[in-house]
């Protein structure tokens, strides 16, 4: 199998990966990830894409031109399977559908979120973000700067998938594997006739995907716990080659899934220890500030701090679910405190 290391987008090229599978790098404007790897899987009735890339003219040119360079016509695409609803994966699905008549499929839980996004006005989104940041304990002067802009919602799916469903791909066996965590409806796609797994953002070769909880103070979900369980499930699929949505193709997805799980378990232990050393309950913002990120907290831009707070909240929720910390009742901002071990 062809394999690449992470290089700038300018050095990326469409690739024939063999076995009727191709990859096309599609740029993500203004994002340090650089690009999404969109995959095409051949079938007698036309290729099916795994993800589609960000909705931007440069991205569309890269996707349609990259497919053409591989001898594929975007107008012949049969369908687009979206691993999850984020804009760097689902953004161009609607344009592919317009060009080819293709269907769009995603997991039913992400489909429900997309429908909600279409009903949610931009002003409501801003109010939601502002209140969420306030309840997390963000500095009032920082709330406005920490609010990100909402991208346009992706196209509504035509088909909804559940765990174990086979994608409509004649002559091949491409099965949806529900791997919640990064989003509630994230799926990996197991190409069973080739021992390959399209991992989306669930398992990446070098970085770990963002696992956040929104709003930060929800107490009815545990996305990090779901993610850790999903990593175990992927590991049980056996020895598979991983075709991720970012970075590079790699061998043995189970080994990498185990590494990522270990990373988060260590992070949970460190966080519980830090909280036990504090004499008072802490806000989500205070917890995020004392965690380790890829740069010091003081150097993080406000929008990145808001993402860090989402990830801190997910770790707090898992610790709460495990009975290692408690949520202080009836306080605003919400606060958490370590329990005696």
TrEMBL record:
Give the matching SMART domains: Lactamase_B
Q: Which residues form the signal peptide?
A: none
**At the top level of its lineage, which domain of life is listed?**
Bacteria
| Pfam families with a match to the protein in the record | Lactamase_B (PF00753)
Q: Region labeled Disordered — which residues?
A: 139-161
Domain Metallo-beta-lactamase, residue spans:
35-246
Q: Which InterPro entries match?
A: Metallo-B-lactamas (IPR001279), NDM-1-like (IPR050855), RibonucZ/Hydroxyglut_hydro (IPR036866), WH-like_DNA-bd_sf (IPR036388)
PANTHER family assigned = METALLO BETA-LACTAMASE SUPERFAMILY LIPOPROTEIN (PTHR42951:SF22), METALLO-BETA-LACTAMASE DOMAIN-CONTAINING (PTHR42951)
Identify this protein by name. Answer: MBL fold metallo-hydrolase
Q: Which organism is it from?
A: Nonomuraea spiralis
Q: What is the lineage of its organism?
A: Bacteria, Bacillati, Actinomycetota, Actinomycetes, Streptosporangiales
